[in-house]
Amino acid sequence: MFRPLMIAALIALPAVAGAQSAPVADTAGSGTPPQRVRAVTLGVGQKCPQSSDTEIVICSTLEQPYRIPKQFRDSGPIPAKNQAWGNRAATMDQVGRAAGGLPDTCSPVGTGGQSGCALATNRQWAAERRAKQDADASVP
């Protein structure tokens, strides 16, 4: 039962292979693949250069250097239910440290809670400084 099916498949195989190797109409007309792919970043008012039979040109602008649409970029903090379990565990650990008054937590509770207040103040200052630098860099 299996042998006649296998023989029929082997006889039909050259016909299928011949049909696949038939020439395919190429849109460029040359029938050869491009030799080079070039990515070009355009400034304001520049036009994308024309591609040829041997080259594909991909253009992007400086205003939108990412392929992700602007409305989906920087959407704010990720909700806890959509975060990896490692991030959630780290958050729970930090919350537990602050609630327990462990060292470097800046908590009024516990014996080592006060040692983290200077550290927390420094982190807040650095975050405000980074935010100000980012705001200054985004203003043209």
TrEMBL record:
Highest taxon of the lineage: Bacteria
Signal peptide: 1-19
Claim: Signal is one of the keywords in the record: yes
Keywords, sorted A to Z: Signal
Protein name according to UniProt: Secreted protein
